[in-house]
Amino acid sequence: MVTTRLAESTDHDDAVAVWRAANTARGRPPEATRVDRVRAKLGEPDAIVIVAVASGRVRGMLLAEPGRDRDGRGPRVAGLCHISMVFVHPGWQGRGVGRLLLERLRTHVAALGGTRLQVWTGADNDRARRLYRRAGFAPSGRVASLGPTRPIEQFTLDL
């Protein structure tokens, strides 16, 4: 059985381990500087970190933060929550863990008075795109790029 909960600081190392394992499995092992950056983001005061736990171990993680105008460079947008990452350990993918993480976030943000969730994902990341659609997100029509060969697409969900 998989349960989700808001993470405690003692969960951060396990959350980073899930993130690393998932990135490595898809052929993108992170460099040490990126690992340090993710660890720091998990510890930020306004970070919402949710973990999925099964058999006493963290199997999935989600990081969200207040949404900001101008694609994260501007002031906070009231009611907007930006999902920075959702990762599931490779051995637990396809079991609904990502959906459970998103459901917990949705409930948590709505209880705080949030009105909208947003996320950007790779235009070629079919697994993530299916996850967001199944969770009720819809493409916003916005596309961008993380360089010349990495198009990304925005999905949103009104709460």
Query: Architecture, according to CATH?
Result: 3-Layer(aba) Sandwich
Please state the oligomeric state of the protein chains shown: single chain
CA-atom Rg in angstroms: 15 Å
Average pLDDT works out at 96
CATH topology type: Aminopeptidase
Going by CATH, what is the homologous superfamily?
A: Gcn5-related N-acetyltransferase (GNAT)
Widest sheet, order of strands: 1-2-3-4-5-7-6
Order of helices and strands: EHHEEHEHEHEE
Q: Helix proportion of residues, in percent?
A: 25-40%
- Structural class from helices and strands? alpha+beta
- The number of helical elements comes to 5
**What is the number of E strands?**
7
Termini separation comes to 27 Å
State which percent range the strand residues make up.
Answer: 35-45%
Explain the overall architecture.
With 159 residues, the chain is of the alpha+beta class. The chain has one domain (3-158): Gcn5-related N-acetyltransferase (GNAT) (Aminopeptidase), CATH 3.40.630.30. The protein has five helices and seven strands. The chain has helices at residues 12-25, 32-42, 69-72, 97-111, 126-134; strands spanning 3-6, 48-54, 57-68, 76-88, 116-122, 138-145, 151-158. Strand 4 (76-88), helix 4 and strand 5 (116-122) form a beta-alpha-beta unit. Helix 1 (12-25) crosses helix 2. The longest helix is centred in the middle third of the chain and has 15 residues, at 97-111. 31% of the residues are buried. The model has no long low-confidence stretch (mean pLDDT 96).
